[in-house]
Structure formats: C-alpha cells, structure tokens
C-alpha cells in the first residue's frame, strides 16, 4: 500500500506542473526522449533507490524515457516539503477515485492545454486564480452558466473575458 501511494505521488508530481500558477517546465521533445540512455539501477543514489524500490525488479525492462521521468520525479519528491507531499498524496487519492473514463477525459484536457501557446496558458491560469478568489455563491453561478454553454460559447468566453467575474455582468438589453 505504501509503495502504491508513493508511486501515485510521483505520478502526480509529473502531472501537477501544468495546473500551477507558474509556467509548466519544459519537457524533452519526443525525438530527444528516444535518444536517452538507460539508467543502471546501481547508478541511482540511495535515496532514489529507496523511493523507486517498487520498480527495482522491472527497472531494466523499463524504457529509458520512463526511467528518466521516474528519477526526475523521485528528485522532485525528495525536495518537497511535508505539506507539499501531503497535497500530492491527496491529489493522487482523488485521481484514483475517478472512473477510467474521467481520467481519460482529464488527460485529453491536459494534453490540449499543453498544446496551447504560453500566453493562452497563462491567460487561463489567471482566469482560474481570479475565479478562486470569488465568493462561493458567485463560483456556483459561474459553474451553472458554464455547464449551459456550448463548446463554441465556452471558447469565446475564454478568449474575450479578462476575468471570470465578467460573465456575471448584466447583459445589455
């Protein structure tokens, strides 16, 4: 169980960068990733070996790209503060409670977000931060309005509004 939670924490650490307020870290291009050399288990630090111990038996069969991602995630985990680790564990637990279809939908949304230009990504982050600062009742009103919008209306709303609060303005008559 402990290993599963640790693995999930590492996995979430890989995915959580895209939704933070800071721009997402650059990831290697697929062509560069295929050229990565495998990492020998013995080359890992004792800390990395401890964190990745659940992978020891199959380490040599993992693709080099995955080995590198796991080592990077283990390094990030080691640098996290206890509150950050707790937050990561909670996110992973929420993730695993989702239905596979919902997980797939969220992965698609994440990939679509990653394909956006950096300025559009930042615009969405800014809108979300402003939304988080709204009172609960206004958040509920916006969620209800958003649910009733078509995909085209949603895209238009994101492009033309500087803040989520703008959608609560009275419509011109």
Estimate the mean pLDDT confidence: 79
Strand content: under 5%
Number of helical runs? 9
Instruction: State the low-pLDDT regions, or none.
Output: 1-34, 163-173
What is the number of beta strands? 0
Specify the overall morphology. Answer: elongated
Distance between the termini: 59 Å
Q: What composes the largest sheet? A: none
Radius of gyration: 20 Å
The percent of residues in helical segments reads 55-70%
Query: What's the oligomerization state?
Result: single chain
SSE topology string: HHHHHHHHH
Instruction: Look at the helices and sheets and give the structural class.
Output: mainly alpha
Architecture blueprint of SSEs:
Elements: H1 2-15, H2 30-34, H3 46-51, H4 64-79, H5 82-97, H6 100-115, H7 118-133, H8 136-147, H9 151-160
Structural write-up:
- The chain is mainly alpha-helical and 173 residues long.
- Helix content is 64%, strand content 0%.
- It has helices spanning 2-15, 30-34, 46-51, 64-79, 82-97, 100-115, 118-133, 136-147, 151-160.
């Amino acid at each position: 169980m402990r290993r599963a939670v640790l693995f999930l924490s590492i996995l979430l650490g890989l995915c959580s960068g895209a939704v933070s307020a800071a721009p997402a870290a650059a990831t290697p291009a697929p062509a560069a990733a295929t050229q990565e050399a495998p990492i020998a288990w013995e080359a890992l630090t004792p800390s990395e070996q401890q964190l990745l111990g659940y992978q020891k038996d199959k380490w040599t069969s993992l693709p080099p790209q995955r080995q590198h991602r796991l080592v990077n995630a283990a390094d990030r985990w080691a640098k996290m503060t206890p509150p950050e680790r707790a937050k990561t564990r909670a996110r992973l637990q929420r993730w695993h409670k989702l239905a596979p279809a919902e997980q797939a939908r969220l992965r698609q949304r994440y990939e679509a977000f990653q394909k956006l230009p950096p300025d559009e990504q930042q615009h969405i982050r800014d809108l979300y931060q402003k939304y988080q600062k709204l009172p609960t009742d206004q958040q509920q009103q916006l969620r209800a309005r958003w649910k009733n919008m078509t995909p085209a209306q949603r895209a238009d709303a994101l492009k033309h509004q500087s803040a989520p609060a703008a959608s609560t303005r009275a419509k011109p008559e």
